[in-house]
Amino acid sequence: MRILVLEDEFLIAMDVEQLCRDNGAADVVIAQDLTAIDPEQPGPSFDAAILDIMLGGISTLPFARKLHERGVPFIFASGYTDFEEILAAFPGVLVIGKPYSGDELIEAVAAASGRLAASGSA
Predict the structure, then answer these.
(1) What is the pTM of this model?
(2) Is there a domain that residue 54 lies in?
(3) Which tens digit of pLDDT belongs to each residue from 39-67?
(4) Of 97, 47, 54, 98, nearest to 74 (Cα)?
């Protein structure tokens, strides 16, 4: 799998990258802001994505809509607390809150990509 990680906290991004690699990801691309990737072409080069809801104060929701339109599975992993707004805009997309466990993150990505049954959302 090739996984995109949108995370602006460097240590968290590095931890998520290692978790993904340890669980079989062939490639993990980290972007700490949306200018690091082409927001108009978010897929299909990724098999899944892990999105922080806010990157440096900028919402990733428009980018998430583009992923959704292109059929790229994704989850939100964020310290953002208004999950109801996110769940309303993206029904069926898993949202896990920070701090989260590595197992929780990997299970959510696996569920989003159809490799594991979902156990729920935050």
Answers:
(1) 0.87
(2) yes
(3) 566 555 889 999 999 998 889 999 999 99
(4) 47
